[in-house]
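Side project, low priority. Logging it here so it doesn't get lost.
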Amino acid sequence: MSLTITDLEQLQSEHPEWQMELVEGKIIVTGPSDYESEEISTRLSTFLSN
């Protein structure tokens, strides 16, 4: 069974603390960002804004 954006939105409204994405019809629950990924994201954003 392939899930849709509507399914994802419903699940996110039921569990707002979860980070989820829809990949090829499957809902993937991802873990929270760690320090390293936040640091990379900050550096990338700074690089792009310059």
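Brief comment: The mean pLDDT is 89.
Revisit when time allows.
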